[in-house]
Amino acid sequence: MIEENKSYSSLLVMVRETYKFVQLLLPTEPLLLTYEFSNWIKEPGDYTTLPVEIKQDGDIELFMSVRSDCVWLEIYVTFDERDVDLYIRQREEEDGINNEENQGSDSKLLPWKDKFYI
């Protein structure tokens, strides 16, 4: 269970311990925490809503306040440097940020829901 006043760094520690990432990944290996809103709030014509990233303490508070109304809301954990980088490139492309490193990159979509979630 996540507490509303939990810090971002303590949440990362909890995720690393819960899913045994401490044993599987280097401490410097990136973890990306995201969640997505329900389909009923998506824009007409959109396939799905964009994931919301958890990057700081305030993001946990927001997640918990939304979750009080939407109890099915889950946190998705993306790990592995390749997958995290792919997510970041896709978000930059969606936001219209063209980076020379992104051009010619793998256009395969990251399988968000195939990752661990809490």
Describe the 3D structure.
There is one protein chain. With 118 residues, this protein is α+β, with helices and mostly antiparallel strands. It has one domain. It is 36% helix and 12% strand. The protein contains 4 helices and 4 strands. It has a 4-stranded antiparallel β-sheet. The longest helix is centred in the C-terminal third of the chain and has 14 residues, at 81-94. It is globular and about 45 Å long.
Q: Mean pLDDT score, rounded?
A: 78
Structural class: alpha+beta
How many individual domains? 1
Largest sheet: 4 strands, antiparallel
Order of helices and strands: HHEEHEHE
Secondary structure: helix percent: 25-40%
**Could you say which overall geometry the principal axes of the C-alpha atoms support?**
globular
What share of residues are in beta strands?
A: 5-15%
Strand tally is 4
Number of helices: 4
Task: Write out key terms for the chains shown.
12% strand, alpha+beta, 118 residues, globular, 4 strands, 36% helix, four-stranded antiparallel beta sheet
Task: Please give a quick description of this structure.
The chain has 118 residues and is of the alpha+beta class. Helices cover 36% and strands 12% of the residues. The chain has one domain (8-96).
